Structures are given as C-alpha cells and as structure tokens.
C-alpha cells in the first residue's frame, strides 16, 4: 500500500535532513568574540621622525599605553608582546605589507621590506620568502603605521608571539585583555581567530575559534596615512579576554591563526598583553633546535660517545658525563619615548 502524504506533510526523512543541515551551519559558524572597549591609546614618536606631532601619522608611531572599559591598563611598552614568527597560509594575493608614506628610516626604523633585506618595489610579490619576511617585520615591533593591506577575498595566516601567556584569572570572563588587535578604518567582518595553545608552529594545537568584526571595535583617535590609501584613516582597536576562547586549565596562549572569508582587514598590529609583564612566559619554540643543530646532532653525538668511551677505558673511575645546558630567557628591547602623546 502506498504511503500517501498531502503537500503540506513533512516526512521524517526531510525533518532529519533539515536538522542535520541546521546543525552543520551552527557548528561551522564560530561564536562571536565580545571585544573589550578601548578608552585611551597612547603612542610615542621617535626622534628623527617625519611625523607631525598631532597626526595624521605618516611615519612610525610606537604603542606606549592603553586603558580599557572596566579599568584595565597596559601601562608600558613591556606590557605588549609582538610577533616573533609569521606565515601566510593561503590567499597570498590578498595580503601584503604596507607602511607610512614617509617611513624612510630617518627615525632608525625603516619600512618592513628594507628591514627584511628586500626592495620595497616587491610590495605586491607573492613569493613566500619575501612576503612572509616583510610581514614578520611589519608585526614584530610596536609600530602602528607598519601594517598589512588586505584585499577583499579569502586568506589565512598564523603567528607566534614573542612570549606565551595564561589568563590573569581563568575562573571568569573579565575585562582584562590578554590579546589586542588594531585594524584600519574599522570596516571588516569575516575574521575568525583560534589561539595556538601547544604543539609546534607547523602542527599546532588550537582553542575554539571566535569570529571578529572590526566595526564593533573602538576608535583610537589615531589617524594614519599609508602608501596604498590616498587619505588618512582612523585606527580601531579592541581587547579580548583569553577565557573567551575557552582554553583548558593551565593552558597557555602562544599565538593564533586568523582565517578571513570574503573580507579584507587592514591590520595595524596584534599583541599578547599583560598588565604585569612578569606574567609573560617563554614562547612556544624557544628551545627548538636550529636546522644546523638537527643536521649535526647525530654526528656530534657519535663523536662525543666515542670520546667518552675512550676516556672510560683509560679511567674506569669516570662513570657519568657532566650536563651542559640551561634556559636563557631573553629580555625585549628598549623603548622609544621621544615625542608626543596621542
């Protein structure tokens, strides 16, 4: 007997399919990150700069101090940990380094391509060896006028910071930011971020992913004029609590991966941040051996083993070799403080 169904009747199979589709949509859309509003942002202008003290800024300005809604304050440059490794993973045609119109190195900090050892004429290159090096030099200082220019489309990149950091209070979602982002003009959605909590740079472990929309971020009052845009634009910024990414107990943030879909954010900086710089930890791969060490390791080990064996044959009383090593946690460089407060 045929199972007749009126036009308005919905079969069990159709309901199941609809439920599965809805579930996929809900799972595939990351939750939205709630920004911590920025109240004030202070920068310094180094000596030798081409900037006009009041802006718009066409040369380097260095992040000095930030305050946030709720009272949190990042009171010195040592509260900000910039990038130590950068890799563009996809969409190379949609992201490149950019800098201020007058960034000529007169202040001791040239544009990112020069600092990476390349001709600035390579600005639009998609050669990974040039592109990633220039973008690293863009984000490994506290300059807010050295930045990335994003073209509308899809791209993704991964970074490690110069330090690791745990949430200041893992028990609560609070208004003390452990990450800060800057974006030019505050007009981009389509960004999702997941925090690197372990593994390696090539094969990291991640937190949950959160979506970001820079139109929800705060205007900083800082205007920049850079090489690819003819008119000054305002920087927007926001802080984010690590607890929003639902890190597990004792987990450390070492970096993050951003995936951009149908958007073109122009990023002026991103940092791990701590009210107390003493909270910063060693970076993820601080003790990773160099490629040369990996190559020579077996040779050195074999030579050392032979030497020790020979010594033991000559002197049976020697039964244990001494250890060589130790951690060396480097300090970050000094700050530039000649100049005006924004």
Chain-wise SSE layout:
Layout: H1 12-28, E1 31-32, E2 38-44, E3 62-68, E4 73-74, E5 80-81, E6 83-90, E7 95-98, H2 112-115, H3 128-139, E8 147-150, E9 153-165, E10 179-184, E11 191-199, E12 204-212, E13 218-224, E14 233-240, E15 253-263, E16 267-273, H4 291-314
Describe the structure.
Strand 11 and strand 12 form a beta hairpin. Helices cover about 15% and strands about 30% of the residues. It is globular and about 50 Å long. It has helices spanning about 10-30, 110-115, 130-140, 290-315; strands at about 30, 40-45, 60-70, 75, 80, 85-90, 95-100, 145-150, 155-165, 180-185, 190-200, 205-210, 220-225, 235-240, 255-265, 265-275. It is built from four helices and 16 strands. A six-stranded mixed beta sheet has the order 1-12-11-15-9-6. With about 350 residues, it is of the alpha+beta class.
Q: Helical residue percent?
A: 10-25%
Uncertain segments are 1-9, 20-27, 289-342
Report the order of strands and helices.
HEEEEEEEHHEEEEEEEEEH
Widest β-sheet, arrangement of strands: 1-12-11-15-9-6
What integer value in Å does the Rg equal? 25 Å
Question: Could you say which structural class the secondary elements and strand pairing correspond to?
Answer: alpha+beta
Shape: globular
Q: Give the helix tally.
A: 4
The major pleated sheet works out as: 6 strands, mixed
Mean pLDDT across all residues, rounded? Answer: 83
Strand content: 25-35%
Task: List the main descriptive attributes of the protein structure presented here.
16 strands; 4 helices; alpha+beta; disordered C terminus
């Amino acid at each position: 007997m045929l199972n007749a169904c009126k036009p308005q009747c919905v079969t069990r199979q159709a309901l199941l399919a609809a439920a599965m589709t809805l579930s996929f949509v809900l799972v595939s859309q990351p939750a939205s990150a709630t920004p911590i509003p920025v109240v004030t942002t202070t920068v310094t202008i180094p000596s030798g700069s081409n900037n006009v003290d009041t802006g718009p800024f066409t040369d380097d300005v260095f992040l000095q101090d930030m305050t946030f809604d709720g009272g949190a304050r990042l009171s010195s440059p040592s509260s900000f940990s910039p990038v130590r490794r950068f890799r563009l993973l996809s969409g190379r045609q949609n992201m490149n380094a950019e800098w201020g119109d007058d960034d000529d190195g007169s202040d001791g900090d040239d544009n990112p391509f020069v600092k990476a050892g390349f001709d600035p004429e390579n600005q639009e290159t998609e050669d990974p060896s040039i592109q990633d090096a220039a973008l690293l030099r863009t984000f490994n200082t506290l300059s807010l006028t050295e930045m990335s220019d994003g073209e509308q489309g899809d791209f993704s990149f991964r970074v490690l910071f110069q330090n690791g950091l745990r949430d200041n209070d893992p028990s609560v979602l609070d208004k003390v930011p452990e990450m800060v982002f800057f974006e030019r003009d505050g007009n981009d959605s389509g960004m999702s971020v997941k925090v690197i909590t372990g593994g390696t740079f090539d094969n990291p472990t991640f937190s949950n992913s959160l979506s970001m929309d820079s139109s929800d971020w705060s205007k900083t009052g800082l205007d920049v004029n850079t090489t690819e845009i003819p008119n000054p634009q305002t920087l927007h910024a926001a802080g984010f609590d690590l607890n929003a990414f639902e890190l597990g107990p004792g987990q450390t943030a070492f970096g993050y991966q951003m995936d951009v879909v149908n958007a073109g954010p122009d990023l002026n900086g991103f940092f791990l941040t701590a009210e107390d710089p003493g909270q910063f930890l060693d970076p993820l791969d601080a003790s990773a051996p160099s490629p040369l060490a990996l190559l020579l390791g077996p040779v050195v080990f074999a030579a050392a083993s032979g030497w020790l064996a020979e010594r033991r044959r000559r002197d049976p009383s020697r039964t244990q070799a001494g250890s060589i090593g130790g951690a060396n946690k480097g300090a970050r460089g000094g700050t530039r403080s000649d100049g005006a407060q924004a």
